Amino acid sequence: MLFASVLAFAAAAAAAPAFPPSPVFAGIQWHWDTRQTAAPGSDLWPVAWADDDHLYTAWGDGGGFGGTDTDGRVAMGFGRLEGVPPAWHGFNLNGGKDPPHPASFPRKGKTSGLACVDGVLYATVNLQDGPWPRVNHVLAWSADRAATWERASWLFPVGEGRFHPAAFVGFGRDYTGLPDSLAGYVYVIGGHQSPGRDGGGRLYLARVPRTRLREEAAWEFYQGAGTNGAPRWSPDEAAAPPVFEDPNGVAVGSMVYLPAARRFLLTSYHTGPGQLGVFDAPEPWGPWTLVDYQEHWGGMGAAGEGLTCTFPQKWMSPDGLTLWAVFSAYGTGAKQGVNAHDCFNLLQATLVPLSHAERK
């Protein structure tokens, strides 16, 4: 089984751009027989591990758990995930089908980024106030576990080359467990507005002190390494170099820390639902190496959109090798193979470690 998996990995990686192979992982096994789905008609599904030990999530354009594409439909709703796969349950909290709290974003708004920091949920919200990608983004937060939401008075503004916040870098419960060199900050990845949908195939990295998330002036952007090798940061987003590039495209992107391996995992669809890449690095700015690169992931195709794919740290095994992916896809290609189109998808995966002899 392991040999077959490694062969499959090698074949899938053949179409990948020129990333060196991971020095830690030989690949990743996707256990499609474990896949579970819920909430037909609702997509996106970012997650955050909160201080109450639950995962919180958000969806777009549907009724959420128990709803459909039309039943309970809102532009954006929020919910809670309880339990551990395969025994888990999803509950609507704000918007959707029969929620305890009315929708804060009933007609416009989308998020692919959630985090819980010191007991407060934060979301990066696409305001949908123009044709994509010419939209403004705003930071929103909830101090009552997604029941109600407030918005910052300032924006991540529309404009060529402006930063589009996409996803918070994932860490432990209530945004803890960061390496000492990263402690005290919250980290967000995203693209720069470009004419295409894929952000020009690049991701950038921002950070903000965890006690000053709501202050526009506190945000700064990774500027590369200094002469001593330490990372440099500046409020100048225009001067920021990308921390990740894939010439085949980058759709949203998701990054999470693997404490057992002391590595970061980055997932990104380079085009459609069946075209997923998985990369790892020692730091959130890289250097990135290849774990897996798929063109027909789950038997799905290129038509449509691969939206999000993330590995919640709460659902990782202690050795960091067994993971659960929460993913979302949309369109004709997503209706092929496993048919993951427009719903909540949950899938177990296993990272395949290199042996000590294979590591350099």
Task: Please explain how this structure is put together.
The chain is mainly beta. The protein has a domain at 2-155 and 261-353: Tachylectin-2, Chain A (5 Propeller), CATH 2.115.10. Helix content is 3%, strand content 43%. The chain has one helix at 2-13; strands at 25-38, 43-49, 55-62, 74-84, 87-94, 110-117, 120-126, 137-142, 150-151, 163-168, 185-192, 202-209, 220-225, 231-234, 244-245, 251-258, 263-269, 276-281, 289-293, 305-310, 322-330, 344-353. Strands 10, 11, 12, 13, 14 and 15 form a 6-stranded antiparallel sheet that branches. A 4-stranded antiparallel sheet has the order 1-22-21-20. A 4-stranded antiparallel sheet has the order 2-3-4-5, with no helix packed on it. Strand 4 (74-84) and strand 5 form a beta hairpin. It starts with a helix and ends in a 7-residue tail after the last strand.
Report the uncertain regions: 1-14
Top CATH class of the domain at 2-155 and 261-353: Mainly Beta
Estimate the mean pLDDT confidence.
93
Tell me the structural class: mainly beta
Shape by Cα distribution: globular
In whole angstroms, the N-to-C terminal distance is 25 Å
* Total DSSP helices: 1
CATH architecture of the domain at 2-155 and 261-353: 5 Propeller
Order of helices and strands: HEEEEEEEEEEEEEEEEEEEEEE
Quaternary class = single chain
